[in-house]
Amino acid sequence: MTTLDKVESPILRRFFEYYLQKRGDRPFPARADLDPVDFPYALGDITLIDVQYDPLRFRFRLDGSHHVERFGFDLTGRPLDDFPYPEMRQTIFDSYQDVIEHREPRRYFRDLETAGRWFRYETLLLPLSRDGTTIDMIVSAISFHDLQIPLESGKEA
Questions:
Q1: How far apart, in whole angstroms, are the C-alpha atoms of residue 141 and residue 125?
Q2: pTM for the predicted model, two decimal places
Q3: Long-range contacts formed by 77-84: CB under 8 A, 24+ apart
């Protein structure tokens, strides 16, 4: 289980505290419980992902502006299947599936290389539910960390 003490990023810690407060004693808060006015410090770091079942699929309702800047593309309104890097796409799918299967928040810290670029980030994946039972959305909050790793050509990413 993800706990606050494992979260390194101050922005993610603050957002996770907000999520826990909005959840209260319920298993999950609803999307309607989260008001962007309450977390201007994290707006560019937030992505909203719709969860679809039978088969399990994910669609980006909103792709955070910091994600768009880092990755160079905007997936707002598009399915995860449109994510252009297959290895990273599978890692993301597996992470989202983990949230659904375990029915609790998850935290990941990753170093991923895709198309010659390195990404180091910490992410929180937080389940949301309109009816309090079925997870119908995941809110992802990401904190990117600069990473300079020499590539095989001797250039830095």
A1: 7
A2: 0.85
A3: 80/49, 81/57
Model pLDDT for residues 96-127, shown as the tens digit of each residue: 999 999 999 999 988 776 666 677 789 999 99
Give the whole-angstrom CA distance, residue 139 versus residue 122.
Answer: 14
Residue with tokens 């593309």, as numbered in its chain: 73
Structure tokens given for 24: 């209260």
Give CA–CA dist 95/154, Å, rounded.
Answer: 32
More confident residue, 69 or 76: 76
Say what the pLDDT of residue 152 is.
Answer: 47
Listing DSSP states for 27-41 in one string gives S---GGG--GGG-GG
- Best CA proximity match to 58, nearest among 66, 67, 43, 48: 48
**Cα 157 from Cα 150, distance rounded (Å):** 6
- Domains observed in the chain: 4-145 (3.30.450.20)
Residue listed under structure tokens 């539910």: 129
Phi, psi of 87 (to 5 degrees): -65, -45
Tokens read off for 44: 């560019």
